[in-house]
Amino acid sequence: MLKNYIKIAFRNILHNKLYSLINILGLAIGITACLLIVLFINYEFSFEDVFSKTDRIYRVLTIDAALGTNKQRVGITMPPLGKVLADKFPEIESATRITGSRRMLMQKESETGIFAEQVRFAEANFLSIFDFKLLSGDPETALSEPYQIILGAQLANSLFGDEDPLGQVLTLSRNLEMTVTGVIADLPGNTHFSFDALVSLATAEITAKARQPEGSMEPIWLEEWQLIAIPTYMLTSPNADVTGLEDRITELTREYGVDDNFTITLQALNDVHLLSTDVIFDRIDNKGDIKNIYIFSIIAILILIIAAVNYMNLSTACSMQRAKEVGIRKVVGSLRGQLRMQFLGESLIITLLAIFISIPLLELSIPWLNNILGAGIVLGIEQIQILIFCLLAICLVIGILAGLYPAMVLSRYKPLSVLAGAFKSQNKGVILRRILVIIQFTLSIALIGLTVVIQQQMHYITHRDIGYDREQVVLFEMYDGEMFRQVENFTAALTDYSGYSHIGSSSNVPGRTFGRTGILPEGVPEEDIWIWNAFSIDPAFLDAIGMKIVEGRNFWEGTEQSNEGTVLINETAVEQLGWENPIGKMIYSDETDFLGAEVVGIVKNFNFITMHQNIEPVLIRPLVNRPGSIITARIEKGRIKDALDFAETSWKDLYPDYPFTYTFLDDEFRTIYARDINTGGIVNIFSLLTIFVACLGLLGLSSHSINQRRKEISIRKVLGASTSEITRSLILNFIQWVALANILAIPLGWFVAKQWLKMFAYRIEPQLLTFIISGILAVIIALSAIIFQTIKAANANPADSMKYE
Hints:
By secondary structure, the chain is α+β, with helices and mostly antiparallel strands.
């Protein structure tokens, strides 16, 4: 009997080729898209699982509640804190510190050096808490002494080739001789850590002490409790209860004189990737966002629902044609249970065929998704197990749901009623199909509207006036003291070249993390704690980067008048202080600063952090008697190649041992928002797939409905109805339900868009008109799917449809 069921199932598939193709193709696309999103979500949640002690590791964060800040979490904390945690709290087994990354020149003997892009200084126990795989070297001792370095596998290969790097000596930044004590395997993609090399933190400690004046008793930066400067992690004891530990650590910092505006908070390592969008000063390049997980999860469910609705729609529609088959089977003795098994079996077979098609589609799509999102999705054992579970669930749920209506309803009818045609007069199948069409297009229209809003927000981000002009601006950085000695000569060479319109220098540029400093503005209570972002510039920097002075003046050009004792501030600083006449106001570093600095100019607000966060006050100091470490050069339009060629020639003359490197400011800007832009792109693609699958179902449903009504159409034509009247009647039958879907979709889409936009401090307001237009677009798409075959049916010869009557 099973063999007979399978034979009949394939016979029906071949007999209804168009509907079978639409069912299988729609389901395959929906299943593929759903599985892709499932793999991406699994990848996002797999971050930090590479470590054996993940569930016991916490990141120590600081909340800065000072005036002038957004009162958000900060990814760094007091440098000495990590050194005392394990001694002060029994719940903490150990703690470790690792600096942020920096680019450093590495040279092997007298060879030309190469830049290591991300070099970090780490404490000796870092590799015992985070068990990265070492290809060579002892993790217990590899960072225990000064002047030790662990190289990433790729960097080691670039420097030493096939030669064993262990024990070799490298020169770092032209003056630090480091011994290679280990080679670490290339880091997995699913960790927030990124580095090319690890240098022992003891090296930073000994070099900091060496730079101090002889006999100085001042603490170095690693011992300074008043500084917020270094990422810190801690490993708790097994089964330790961390309840209340944050407050106790905060109290400990008070004992060391840390100000009341700083509090300590802990973040579980598993939360770092998806729950850190508000954290600043952490220099994590691959942050995720739990809100994007929600968005993708909703899209996956929507696509699968729409694909399943298509299938159910066509299944219930096509089941009408099989009513007589059911009646005859019951006459010859088929039981109701056997009929139910037959219809459910056929539904499961079609679902299985769609699954078999989706598997190669999935394999082809994974590299594409990895490339767009910068993910590292692979089909390992864990992923295959998840896919098998999902496919089984999809097969059972969709297969059973799609076959349930014909199985339960058709098998219940009496043979005499069915064979007499009574079944065709029933409205239950029609009502169900209308409900499914409404659901399908409600979800599709809401998704179209959400896609438009995402694109509008991305356009707003990339075209909004951010307070400076990032186009045609190139950055040259001085990475160590040796480069800094020639920076004035390099600047002079660029200034003399006609391809550059403005040359400035600074300690930092917008888009990167600014440092923060405590200040005491004129007129505020002394007990108030104000902390502002700060960086230093020369007078030419504002023109080079396109910043505007809205009140007052810039720093003095040349050497005739000194810029000492003057500062610039931004508009937000003026607003928060409530100064009506800010020019001439004084800003002091603290209550012991009797000289202070005079505000001489107000700079138009500029986004120096992402648009996910509000602009904070900025203090801009002058570079006095020395240039900055970053040279900012604006290139004349149409002369990028010439200007860079000249810069490279000048660079090689002045820095023969350093590779020529530069970055464009607009590239850095795009990098900052790459994840947002990529998310928008993925939503676009999946939205188009959703619309395609929905229209595929509508095409099949309209084709089936029109075929069912061919004789009715012929009779109408014989009685004098025109082609346009018949076409209008048939189209209205479908469009009215799509129109009803619009009414439901517009508030739904608007609400979801509103929630997504809350991720941004600077955002557009979603307009109902956007969703109304999306609804009109959906109607046009739906019309396109059915209008051709509707006109074809209306123009058909009535004799062809009625000749068998």
